[in-house]
Design brief:
Blueprint: E1 5-10, E2 14-20, E3 26-33, H1 37-48, E4 56-60, E5 75-76, E6 87-88, H2 89-96, E7 101-105, H3 106-117, E8 126-131, E9 135-141, E10 144-145, H4 178-182, H5 184-191, H6 204-223, E11 227-231, H7 240-252, H8 261-264, E12 265-267, H9 274-284
Parallel strand pairs: 1-4, 4-7, 8-11, 11-12
Antiparallel strand pairs: 1-2, 2-3, 5-6, 8-9, 9-10
Helix pairs in contact: 3-9, 6-7
Bound molecules: adenosine-5'-diphosphate and zinc ion.
Organism: Lapidilactobacillus gannanensis
Pfam families: ROK
Family: Belongs to the ROK (NagC/XylR) family.
């Protein structure tokens, strides 16, 4: 019999909650803006209280504490969204529902969705990168979501700058890290326009491709993935893909062998549904 599972994609801007089955098929969903924890969590309960879910997969914005041995496991830790700082997100849900949970990052559930049902089907090692309001990285190694002491934060790697590019970047922590010069807000600060308002031939996309290619090089050399999958709003600029592949080829300079680049650096297959699909699929892994 099919199980009924819950999934939450908790973003800094909006929450998506869904119920569905262990194959990640969504049966009902709701979307609402992220406001205060109290108000937002009440909306989460109002949705799931209508169903008898057997497990819940949560992919949260962060940074979050994913170390089960830590006193603050399940908390959102250092977010710039101050109302959520040190909020015991998992604890609130556990108090309300006595079911198994998966607690991980929003990026990780999207990576897991692409691994099981999207562009990563059949691959063991998947590097997933989202380029949206921030840059987030999730890595699946031999079918398991990778974490060390904490989850990867590969969006904040430092960049070698394009000659003549003196844009200071917008990351409040590092200035011109990858997120600081390539996420949506950086594109906007650099050009004065939102990414989707720019033409596909705008100069800024060449820089964007170069920085994303550098990131692909770093991830390739560090993790040796089978595939690099890009999602997020900025990657809707499909002209970026051939440009990234060309820059990546130049940067790598034949140092290590990589698969055919058209199959190696690719766009998400599940589109905006990667995260919510992945949260349901993750919930399926903890079914009793
Ligand atoms: P989030 O990261 O908040 O989950 P998105 O992945 O949709 O959400 O990313 C939002 C960012 O992506 C914004 O900075 C927005 O301007 C930018 N963006 C959205 N759509 C596009 C597009 N088609 N082209 C370029 N940038 C876009
Ligand atoms: Zn940074």
């Amino acid at each position: 019999m099919a199980h009924l599972l819950g999934g939450i994609e908790a973003g800094g801007t909006k929450f998506v909650c869904a119920v569905g089955d262990e194959d990640g098929n969504v049966q009902a969903r709701i979307k609402f803006p992220t406001t205060t924890p109290e108000e937002t969590i009440a909306q989460v309960f109002a949705f799931f209280d209508q169903y008898q879910i057997e497990a819940l997969g949560i992919g949260s914005f962060g940074p979050i504490d994913i170390n089960p041995d830590s006193a603050t496991y399940g908390y959102i830790t250092d977010t710039p969204k101050l109302a959520w700082k040190n909020y015991n997100f998992l604890g609130a849900l556990r108090d309300h529902y006595q079911i198994p949970f998966v607690w991980t990052t929003d990026v990780n559930v999207a990576a897991y969705g692409e691994y099981k049902k999207g562009a990563g089907i059949g691959k063991k090692n998947i590097l997933y990168v989202t380029v949206g309001t921030g840059v987030g990285v999730g890595y699946i190694s031999h079918g398991e979501l990778y974490s060390g002491r904490s989850h990867p934060e590969g969006g904040h790697i430092l960049m070698h700058r394009v000659e003549g590019d003196d844009f200071a970047g917008v990351c409040p922590y590092h200035g011109d890290c990858l997120e600081g010069i390539a996420a949506g807000p950086a594109v906007e600060k650099r050009t004065g326009k939102k990414g989707y308002e720019l033409t596909p031939t705008d100069d800024c996309w060449q820089k964007e491709a170069y920085y994303l290619a550098q990131a692909c090089m770093t991830y390739t050399l560090t993790f040796s993935p089978d595939i690099i999958i890009f999602g997020g709003g900025v990657m809707k600029q499909s002209q970026l893909f051939p440009m990234i592949r060309t820059e990546f080829l130049k940067l790598m300079n034949d140092y290590v062998r990589v698969p055919d680049l058209d199959q190696y650096i690719v766009h998400v297959a599940l589109g905006d549904d990667a995260g919510i699909t992945g949260s349901l699929l993750a919930a399926a892994t903890v079914l009793a």
